[in-house]
Amino acid sequence: MLSIRPTETDDASQVAACVDSVAREKLFLGNTKGFSPEQTREFIQFVKSADGVHLVALDSEAVVGWCDITPQTYEGLTHAGRLGMGLLPKYRGQGWGTKLVTEALSIAFNTGLERIELEVFASNVGAIKLYRNFGFREEGRKRKARKLDGVYDDIVLFGLLREERLR
Length: 167
Ligand SMILES: CC(C)(COP(=O)(O)OP(=O)(O)OC[C@H]1O[C@@H](n2cnc3c(N)ncnc32)[C@H](O)[C@@H]1OP(=O)(O)O)[C@@H](O)C(=O)NCCC(=O)NCCS
Description:
Elements: E1 2-6, H1 12-23, H2 37-49, E2 53-59, E3 62-71, E4 80-87, H3 96-110, E5 115-121, H4 125-133, E6 137-148, E7 151-161
Parallel strand pairs: 4-5
Antiparallel strand pairs: 1-2, 2-3, 3-4, 5-7, 6-7
Helix pairs in contact: 1-2
């Protein structure tokens, strides 16, 4: 049984390790390696200071997943936030991604964000199913945007307006 709570800066090392692990699968994230604990700490602090969302999923005390929504910073774009997330392999397909997004969207829309956007590889059918369940709509596609180890993938752009949320 997992629990979900807001991320604390002291979680940075564990979050960094979790992101690094998912990145090194080379399937789901734009990066193929994670960020340092210090970079992760700064990112968590930035997200909090910008009134964004950063959540962790915990198995007991161990960080096994995260979901963040980072508000845009340019004038005129700050009503929009960008979502990122991941779970370690053994915790996938059991509803925890749905729980993380449910909680993250509730906080984001309640604290003033009006639009959530994200990019996902077209091959990532699990994540796309999850996002569509919440009402995210496809807004564009970058064709052959990734070429990794000789394999092409498209990047699909998704967006959700506050009034479109389905769950
Ligand atoms: C994407 C991810 C966060 C989804 O979280 P999850 O806990 O596995 O998803 P859930 O169990 O909540 O399932 C959500 C929906 O997607 C479906 N789904 C999940 N994995 C699937 C898969 N591999 N293939 C098809 N559908 C899948 C579920 O059936 C469910 O739909 P339903 O409620 O209509 O049945 C998780 O799989 C993950 O960490 N993947 C690797 C990292 C990643 O892709 N991050 C997102 C980058 S954009």
